[in-house]
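[STRUCTURE TOKENS]
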Amino acid sequence: MIETRRLTLTVATQREMKEIIASTEDGDLKEAYREMLQGCLDCPDQWDWYAIWLITRKDGVHVGDLSFKGLNPDGSAEIGYGIDPAYWGNGYATEAVAAAVNWALAQNGVTRIEAETDPDNAGSQRVLEKCGFTPTGTNGKEGPRFVRRA
């Protein structure tokens, strides 16, 4: 668990991940969550690197989630995140991503955290920049890539 001034980030259990998968209507997101759960089951010693992290306000309101997409042998990991639109504009994404990235970079062997955003998602790009990420000048499947090094 990671605590910030306003938020708590908690790694989902297997049961919680199954519940999230069952309740997700977006097919692409459901498949991504299934892949995360499979990563957790295949690499239980790296659960935190594959699991969904629940982003909850201190008053108990769930506002979004984030995840890493595994820890690569070269010490890199990719982060993805989403905040429920009802809670946009409150700085929750920046607060949560900053805390998660700081945690990740403090882990043994981690050299960098990467991310990519939709080219039109200026808000997400601002979150990454506020969290110390810089553009790599390359594009991934989802759009421009960013990196923050240890």
